[in-house]
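User: Show me a protein chain along with its predicted structure.
Assistant: Here is one chain, sequence first, then structure tokens.
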Amino acid sequence: MKFDIVGTGSIGLLFAVKLLLANYDVQLWSRTEEQAKLLEEQGIVFQSLGDGSKSLLKPACKAIGSESAEHDELREAADSRYMVLAVKQHHLNEQLLHELDKLARSGRYEAVVAMQNGVGHIAKLGSRLQLPVLTAVTSEAAKRLDQAIIAHAGQGKTWIGDELGRDRDNKHQKNIEEALQKAGFTAFMSKNIKEQVYYKLIGNAVINPLTALFNVSNGELPQSTTRRRLMEKLFAETKQVLLIEEPTIAAYRFEHILQLCSATADNTSSMRADILRGAETEVAYINGAVSAIAARHKLQAPLNESLVHMIEALHPDQKE
């Protein structure tokens, strides 16, 4: 089984190195020539969870768009090769979708595994790609220590499901589940992946924007009485909206958010990390998605809507 991992952020690199260490064939695709050249020349230094031992791995890495999908080396028939899409939602622009479509049409892949936060991307990918598009939801934590240094920051779980119904007999889900388990991940197939998507969406909608706004770690977020009260109100609003579309999340409690903060106490949320490095965040696809779902059902989600504006005001293109 072979993997092409599109996206060289922390999660993309984490899954790449763990699959490499399990002796899978892995090809990396970066969004920039600069990053591709760096990883090709220096490789990836991986710091494992627990003992902190380090490994140097040197997978092939190309910049997406730099090689035509018609190039001879991309013309191979799909030999249990999967594309793992590990870019952020706002990177799924028309240009990238065009390049992904070219790769998919080359006959190189059996299926695509999408690992984005938020909602809406599976429908977008499904409308452009004719392959099975699987949904992956992960709570694994990874930290980028440098451009080519990645640390496994926390053990989590990964669920794989088929929202679009294109995976006949669950063949590809089983293959991905088996590969991830061999790579040391705790992975499961999910009969209702939307439930896992919404569980993660609630956690992201509460923790990510507030840690970014207050510039605190996940563990520090609930330590302030004022912040905790805001967390509870944001949780209640978000859950009320999402319950309409996925009743199975009724069992999710605010205590689960607190447990998540505790389990990832030292972690910097991805949204906070983006703000600290002056990058665009995924707030439009997380809190913005909650607001959009609320509007679709004629509900109000003022806290989520306000957080979208506040976080977007911190984006680099909004600074004066």
